[in-house]
Amino acid sequence: MSDEVQAALARRRPVVALESTIIAHGLPRPRNLRVAHELEQAVRDEGAVPATIAVLDGRPHIGLDKDQLERVAGEDGIRKLGHRDLPLAVAAGASGATTVSATALLAARAGLRVFATGGLGGVHREWTLTQDESADLGLLARTRITVVCAGVKSILDVAATLQRLETLGVAVAGYGTSRFPGFYLTDSGHDVDWTLRTPDEVAAVMRAQDALAAPESALVVAHPVPEAEQLEPALHARVLDEALRECAARGVQGQAVTPFLLDHLMRHTEGASLEANLAAVRGNVRLAGRIASAWTRA
Ligand code: PSU
Ligand code: MN
């Protein structure tokens, strides 16, 4: 743990966990490094301490300094680590960026409770053929953490992912909306059962989770990208269709699927999908800072 994060936790100051896969594998270089700094600053602007999480030379890090963040953003061959990869990377002395599942696991083990990302992984379209379901979902079913996200990535089968979250017992609430957000899009077209409207309301749910001694599951706070900053829905539909066809035609599989689709969308929307993605992440990081503050005040 970085000294700053350790000191903040010891003094019960708000801390927000940030994942690193979005930096290393979800965004293009060299902009990704600027974004990494910008996201950390956004957390600070809300009065919280950012803790970007990654594995470097076999050591999990909770909170990265400038050089470490640079390695995550720029090092060739930096791996993508889901939670199952953590022991393998540690034993091998390897370096890797952590996905939502690995970040949530490490954050919770370190005593962090609030985590911000772009969009969760989930059930991929054509799941019946590929069985591709992100490990994010299973991990969130057994980890007590609050994840602020713009829903799940719209490259997924959103209805199936919502169903899996229900089956797995993961609490889901819209933030300021009764519609589940669609990552690049403000509205995925699906309803959510619960709406929370303030950071204090979110903190109250977190306290209730602990008081109920419920299974150690997560709370997903689904926070939509503002409508003015979303990707144009018709463009989204058209380009996503192409991306999915291209992905299948090239036989892209496993961990490579999500980065491939995000990159394809970015290149075929002249960067508009990137801007929508960044707008979503920025909003999530800020909200997470406010939730962490409400949580430590409570
Ligand atoms: N959110 C983003 N961009 C990303 C991701 C999330 O805006 O690249 C990453 C997260 O790390 C998430 C991962 O856990 O994509 C999902 O990968 P997979 O579908 O292979 O589980
Ligand atoms: Mn997958």
From TrEMBL:
Give the catalytic activity.
D-ribose 5-phosphate + uracil = psi-UMP + H2O
Concerning InterPro entries, the annotation shows: Indigdn_synthA-like, PsuG
Question: One MF term from GO for this chain?
Answer: metal ion binding
Cofactor annotation: Mn(2+)
Which GO biological process entries does UniProt record here?
nucleobase catabolic process
Query: What is the cofactor note?
Result: Binds 1 Mn(2+) ion per subunit.
Task: Cite a GO CC annotation.
Answer: cytoplasm
Q: Which UniProt keywords apply?
A: Glycosidase, Hydrolase, Lyase, Manganese, Metal-binding
Q: Where does Mn(2+) bind?
A: D132
Q: Which residues bind substrate?
A: K80, V100, S134, A135, D136
Family assignment from sequence similarity: Belongs to the pseudouridine-5'-phosphate glycosidase family.
Biological role: Catalyzes the reversible cleavage of pseudouridine 5'-phosphate (PsiMP) to ribose 5-phosphate and uracil. Functions biologically in the cleavage direction, as part of a pseudouridine degradation pathway.
Quaternary structure per UniProt?
A: Homotrimer.
Q: What is this protein called?
A: Pseudouridine-5'-phosphate glycosidase
Organism annotation: Streptomyces alboflavus
